[in-house]
Amino acid sequence: MLFPQRFLDALADGRADLAFRRWTKPSARAGGRQRTAVGVVEFVSVEVIAPSSIDFEAARRAGYASRAALLAELERRSGEVYRIQVRLVGADPRLALRDQKPTPAELGDIRDRLARFDSASTHGAWALAVLRLIAECPGEPAARLAERRGRETRLFKVDVRKLKELGLTESLAVGYRLSPRGEAVLAALG
């Protein structure tokens, strides 16, 4: 589920705890969690409602200035209207992981994981090569890095996200850089 930054900012400072979506089928479920730019969000409840049940207070809790603004947004889509109660449950665990140097056991696990990425790849071994490229070109736009690897930008970003899940890379406003964990892994596995 995508959240606009204005909503995430309101959630982080306690002004928002509801979201409304029009879906043909729900893309969130109660108890589910999602990482966002402000931390991990939990979906407390997900229920179908009548748009007429949305009042000003609910619109405000969803980050809208008025009920009319929220309803206008919902009208742009088709499907049933869902009311999603959300709460911020903590920081993205990858943030802390980035700063942790891997133990020898973790290093072995990371090496195995990178090898699995490479063996499952349809475009050949890429994991260490992408880590090296990011180390050489921090802040370089993803499109340029992808071009250097001979990959479509969207597919290159999928690969980088796999490395990010391991705490090895960090996204910048433009491009990426290795995290301290990524630097340690690259130094060890070279």
Lay out the secondary structure.
Layout: H1 5-12, E1 18-23, E2 33-36, E3 39-49, H2 56-61, H3 67-75, E4 80-90, H4 93-98, H5 104-120, H6 127-136, H7 142-149, H8 153-165, E5 169-171, E6 176-178, H9 180-189
Antiparallel strand pairs: 1-4, 2-3, 3-4, 5-6
Helix pairs in contact: 6-9, 7-8
Description:
With about 190 residues, the protein is α+β, with helices and mostly antiparallel strands. It folds into two domains: about 5-90, Hypothetical protein (Archaeosine Trna-guanine Transglycosylase, Chain: A, domain 4); about 95-190, Orthogonal Bundle (Arc Repressor Mutant, subunit A), CATH 1.10.10. The chain is built from nine helices and six strands, in the order αβββααβαααααββα. It has helices spanning about 5-10, 55-60, 65-75, 95-100, 105-120, 125-135, 140-150, 155-165, 180-190; strands at about 20-25, 35, 40-50, 80-90, 170, 175-180. The strands form two sheets. A four-stranded antiparallel β-sheet has the order 1-4-3-2. Strand 2 and strand 3 form a beta hairpin. Helix 6 packs across helix 9 (about 180-190). The chain starts with a helix and ends with a helix. The mean pLDDT is about 95.
